[in-house]
Each structure stands twice: as C-alpha cells, then as structure tokens.
User: Fold RNA polymerase sigma factor 70 region 4 type 2 domain-containing protein from Saccharothrix mutabilis subsp. mutabilis.
Amino acid sequence: MREHPTADDDFAEFVRTSTGPLLRAVLVLRFFEDRSVEATAEALGCSTGSVKTNTARALAVLRADETLRELVTGGGNR
Assistant:
C-alpha cells in the first residue's frame, strides 16, 4: 500500500462511500471506464438526462470538497 494517498485514491473513496447505486454507477462508467453519456445511459437502462443529472450532482459534491476540488477544477478555486 502506498504511504500517501493520491487524488485517484480520494476519488475512488468518494465513489465507494457516496450514496445511491445509480450515482456510483454513473461515476464509474463515465470517469473510470471513460464511457460517453449515451453509452452510460444504455448500460444503465436510463435516459441520457438521468446520466447528465447524476454526473452534475456528483461533480458538485467533488467541487465542494477541498481535497477533491483539484480533480474537478484542475487545482483552481472556481
């Protein structure tokens, strides 16, 4: 095990501990498997709107967390 956690470790922990299986699935498919909105919606059997909404919600949570903000904003304070 690594001595110091990385940003990827922080993101993975967020995914593991976030609530709701749909949110977790959207994050994994969109960001870990790099699937498109359409491919994610097809895999989950939901609308593209649902994928976009859940992606936006997850990113809002990431932006609100000081330790994870860099993943979303590239280090800036937006």
Observations:
- The domain at 7-69 is CATH 1.10.10.10 (Arc Repressor Mutant, subunit A).
- The chain has one domain: 7-69.
